[in-house]
Specification:
six-stranded mixed barrel; 4 helices
Length: about 230
């Protein structure tokens, strides 16, 4: 004969098993309101000249070390976006933002440079996917980081050695998000965790070098305009 305690224990174990399976099961798309962003920025100093700035997600919350790629869909259209920056600190604090060109394509099926659309919020389904799906949006297929501005973010990810970013990043001696300052050269971390660069860390930081042009697609004209000086 089973005691009440035994029955309750078995029920608890069964419930825990069900909850665990539910937690591990793949989650489907989640709907979220999205506004357009027509100028590139990065809360963690990721150089815009090393990523496709027309496919960026500016999300609520901190940028993670694994969850940096999402798929957003609308009917038969979908785009992969790099989720590598926080949402702008503006009045719409409950909204996500995505690059204007991505927003425009999801709305109309065309690039903003071809058929610029007007509008505001699109409520669309999105889901997190493996970062490898966004490899084509990053130069060399790895997340570019600034040896000057991305130190805190990189340090956080290196504390998660099995994370995607910890295993797939490249440090550059670029000192500004829009790539106007610094040197376009790769850096490494020494044994103490400090960045070392061929020309010296932050070389060229005081001189406007305009390393590689970063262009924004202007709303609502659809014109390509060079990014402003960000230092």
């Amino acid at each position: 004969m089973f005691s009440v305690f035994t029955i309750l224990l078995a029920a608890s174990a069964t419930l825990a098993s069900v909850e665990t399976k539910a937690a591990l099961a793949p989650r489907g798309p989640t709907n979220a309101p999205m506004l357009l962003q027509d100028s590139y920025q990065s809360s963690d100093g990721i150089p815009g000249c090393k990523v496709n700035t027309n496919r960026i997600a500016y999300w609520l919350g901190e940028v993670g070390c694994d969850d940096i790629c999402i798929k957003v869909s609308n009917k038969d259209r979908s785009v992969y976006l790099l989720k590598i920056s926080q949402a702008p600190n503006v009045d719409h604090s409950d909204y996500h933002y995505i690059s204007y060109d991505a927003w425009n394509y999801l709305k109309s099926g065309k690039s903003a440079t071809v058929s610029p659309q007007l509008g505001s919020v699109l409520t669309l389904p999105y889901e997190s996917v493996n970062p490898s799906n966004c490899a084509h949006l990053m130069q060399d297929g790895k997340l570019p980081l600034s040896a000057f501005n991305s130190v805190n973010y990189l340090g956080k990810c290196l504390e998660e050695p099995d994370s995607w970013v910890a295993k797939n990043y490249i440090l550059y001696n670029i000192a500004s998000t829009n790539c106007h300052y610094g040197k376009d050269e790769k850096c490494t971390l020494n044994k103490s965790g400090a960045a070392t660069c061929p020309s010296g860390l932050a070389a060229g930081v005081s001189q406007y070098n305009h390393l590689q042009p970063v262009y924004n697609i202007e709303y609502p004209t659809g014109k390509k305009v060079m990014s402003p000086n960000d230092m």
